[in-house]
Amino acid sequence: MALPSGNEPLLAAAPPVPAPVVVVSPQFCAKEVVPLTVTKKVKSLTGGDFTVTDPSGAVVLQFKGSVWSVRNRRVLVDAAGQPILSMHEKVLSMHNRWEVFRGDSSNASDLLFTVKRSTLLQLRTELEVFLAGNNTAQQACDFKLKGSYFDRDCAFYLGDSNTMIAQISRKYTASNVLLGKDTFNVTVFPDVDHVFVAVLVVVLDEVHSRDRNY
């Protein structure tokens, strides 16, 4: 399913998911489509801070961290600056593996989910997500991201099914180019945890940013 190449968020009627997709908290699941904009400051000494805004332009989430540390780490905070999640890149991981923990933590007991490439070499984007309870076996992923990052055409699915839970596209404007920003439109379907989806967008960008740096 190709995404439009325009600059507006996708607000078309979304197919219902079989059951609410709750990963971080039920409070982040809405009964209607949630349109978000994820903006990355490309030219940042911290390696690119990410800001998530709603359709009115209000900041609802921010990712802060640094790629200059031994372990690439970011902390997701809410509009009041309170930590919600922390994400860590696994050192020397061939599949660009990221671990996401509840709060500002790195304890195994706080692990929420793991994200990694499906295969080492890819012509098209494919990331797999394993929830904490499935992190050891990893026989079948809980969620999957498929599409083309460079063609601005990606979607999130329940496991290996065709049930879509969110879509993203990249947005180019003259002001963003001048300000050194990279912007993604995100459409989160009803009853889907929008914080979970926002984290996956950032992981997707981090994985491909590393590709551009090698």
SSE layout:
Layout: E1 34-41, E2 50-53, E3 59-66, E4 73-78, E5 83-89, E6 98-102, E7 111-117, E8 125-131, E9 143-148, E10 153-158, E11 164-171, H1 174-179, E12 181-188, H2 194-213
Antiparallel strand pairs: 1-2, 1-12, 2-3, 3-4, 4-5, 5-6, 6-7, 7-8, 8-9, 9-10, 10-11, 11-12
Radius of gyration: 16 Å
Average pLDDT score: 80
Determine the CATH superfamily.
LURP1-related
The strand count comes to 12
> In this structure, how is the largest beta sheet organized?
12 strands, antiparallel, barrel
**What is the C-level CATH assignment?**
Mainly Beta
Report how far apart the termini are. Answer: 30 Å
The CATH architecture can be named as Beta Barrel
The ordered H/E elements are: EEEEEEEEEEEHEH
Net shape: globular
Structural class, by secondary structure, is mainly beta
CATH topology, by name, is Porin
Low-pLDDT runs of 5+ residues are 1-12
The number of helices is 2
What number of domains? 1
Pick out its properties.
mainly beta; Porin; 12-stranded antiparallel beta barrel; 12 strands; 37% strand; LOR
Description:
This protein has 214 residues and is mainly β. The protein has a single domain, classed as Porin, CATH 2.40.160.200. It is built from two helices and twelve strands. The radius of gyration is 16 Å and the shape is globular. It comes from Setaria italica. It holds the Pfam family LOR. InterPro entries: LOR (IPR007612), LOR_sf (IPR038595), Tubby-like_C (IPR025659). This is Protein LURP-one-related 15.
